[in-house]
Amino acid sequence: MTDKNEIVVALLGQPNSGKSTLFNALTGLKQHVGNWPGKTVEKRYGSFTHGARNYQVVDLPGSYSLTANSDEEVITRDFITSGKADVVCILADSSQLERSLYMLADYAGIKVPCFLVLNMKDVAESQGKKIDAKTIEQRLQIPTIFISAPNRKDYESFYAALDYAYDEKTILDSTELEKKYKEIENEDELQKVIHSGEAKFDWIDSLLDGAVTSKKHTVSLGKLDKIYTHKFLGKAAVVLTIIVGLLLSFIPAIPPMALGSAIGMIPTPLHEALIGMGCPEILSAFITDVLIRSVGFIVQMLGFVFGVTLVFGFFEEVGIMARISYVFDNTMSKLGLQGKSVMPFLVSFGCTMGGAAGTRVIDNWGQKVLTIALAWAVPCGAAWAIIPMLSTVFFGAWMPLIIIVILFVMVLHMWITAKVFSPSLVKKEDRYGMIMELPPYHKPKLGQLLRYVLGRTKDTFFRVVKVVLLVATAFWLLSYSTSSDVSGSILYSIGRTIEPVTKLFGMGWQTFMAFIASSLGKEGALGVLSTIYNGSGAISINTVMGGSTAANINELLIANVSKPEALALIFAMTFNMPCIVALAATYQETHSAKWTFRIAIYYTVTALLLAGVANSVGCLIW
After folding, report:
1. pLDDT tens digits, residue range 217-255?
2. Segment holding 620, helix H or strand E
3. SS3 of 16, please?
4. Where are the alpha helices (DSSP H) in 503-562?
5. Scanning 80, 167, 218, 529, which has the fewest C-beta atoms within 10 Å of its C-beta?
6. How many CB atoms are closer than 10 A to CB 100?
7. CB-based burial of residue 224 (10 Å sphere; 0-12 exposed, 13-18 middle, 19+ buried)?
8. CB 374 within 8 A of CB 420
């Protein structure tokens, strides 16, 4: 995986030390994500060139020390001591050096060349701190720099420190710390653990003595933290914050969503133009209905993801996301997850693709995949646009009860799904929450954030478009009819053939086709039913992605669908695969075709089972 001509640089640091910011700034879009061999911990690596040298950067899992035995600590320790890294960049948060240099103390004794980056310079200076990096450098005998990772002007000093550490093979001077260790080497294990921790903090204090000065600065949680950490108000404040974030996400999402809508208007006039030029009908339909309409649909969906990534990236930069994770950490740990998982769940009420994209902040790969699997159970905004309408059409004043039952089933579904998937994704010893400190609030670097969000959105577009085009093409081939009538399609023939099976789940072939369409886009279910019950026209990608319906759709539904079947359809659609773009986003974030396929099949099967139960209940009532 590593080019022989590349210098391997490992990034080592505690959570919230700025590793991700530095990694993204160095590698840009030249990043790769996978899993460490045999571990469900995400592996991030990328490359960059400076001068005449090529570098590979490995972003080691964030952890608070190298002495524990979680997967993250084991992976980090083994990678460094194995000699795979040519040089190690140790990051520390300048705003709280006494705590963040604990990782440096743990590194003592490791003979791999290294250098120290005192990050978050802007935050430290806002606290009135002055840090003499040269004094610390002299005491450690390794290059030491004081920077702000989002500030590109600071990177020349980073490159200089990196080259010097590699060329001179600078080794951390830990003589004083080793002396302290020798004083306690004959103690029993418990006392040794206690006193080794004390020795590390004593060493850090002596290292910083005279090198860090500060004006009188009162450490305070601040007004916001008094709310976020409140025993009763904390969770409500977090939920409100995420809801506000979702609403704000629509503002930057408007331009790309409008562009997607504009692209979606191209197929009709283009189809007519192509036919007029003598283009074969099937080729024209493929170009307009599959290629162009799919791209427009993706751009629309990515608009919301762009907005979510930008707004919640801002929250991350400011320090709000750490509070969100902290407040829900204990609750999420009961599902084998961590506090960071709550944001994807809540974002999925707006868009499951946005929820999947939100899992990027979760370091543990198994917890990331489990979070996405549970987020699929959350009905998205498109589902909420259809469910109340169908419920009102068929059940009138009982619509609120249907919604309440759906929310109850959602929670139950998430709990069962966690039980089904967590044994394979999150080992028992890894089912813990986060060990974390709340970082100080600080001003974000908007330019750096915007570059990162645009880069991620562009990367996501090209990855997602492959999956969407593949599925859209398959659906188009099945639904294409030379007679421009639904009865002439392969999909119609399949539906009529398997109707005895679909009846077991309370759906006739027509509503089952709507269920299939809902896996591409929830809005398409009504378009499909409208086409079928009108008795003319073909089921097309336009029908599914455009969601166009007949003006008399309510009358058509009441005349052709019974209440038990309608209830089955509602539950089948709600808990089916969210949409084709969510499927693509899941693959994009998990980097696993196997797990994406497992989750998709699981939700298809469970949706049908829920439809069968709903139909049986409906038959008892009506």
Report:
1. 544 445 677 788 777 788 888 888 888 888 898 899 899
2. helix 593-621
3. coil
4. 509-518, 522-534, 541-546, 553-560
5. 218
6. 26
7. middle
8. no
Which element (helix H / strand E) includes 11?
strand 6-12
d(CA 35, CA 43): 5
Q: What is the pTM of this model?
A: 0.73
Place of tokens 């978050």: 120
Q: How many CA atoms lie within 13 A of 271 on its CB side?
A: 18
Strands of 361-477, DSSP E: none
Helix (H) or strand (E) holding 20, with range, is helix 19-27
Token digits of residue 207: 């290292």
Q: How far apart are CA 150 and CA 199, in angstroms?
A: 33
**What angle separates helix 593-621 from helix 563-574, to the nearest 10 degrees?**
160
Query: Could you identify the residue written with the tokens 């005192």?
Result: 118
Sequence letter at residue 215: K
User: Element (H or E) spanning 32, and its range?
Assistant: strand 31-35
Q: Is 92 helix (H, G, I), strand (E, B) or coil?
A: strand
Comparing 431 with 285, the larger pLDDT belongs to 285
Q: Which residues of 570-590 are buried (b: 16+ CB within 10 A; e: fewer)?
A: bbbbbbbbbbbbbbbbbbbbb
Could you write out the three-class secondary structure of 323-368?
HHHHHHHHHHHCCCCCHHHHHHHHHCCCCHHHHHHHHHHCCCHHHH
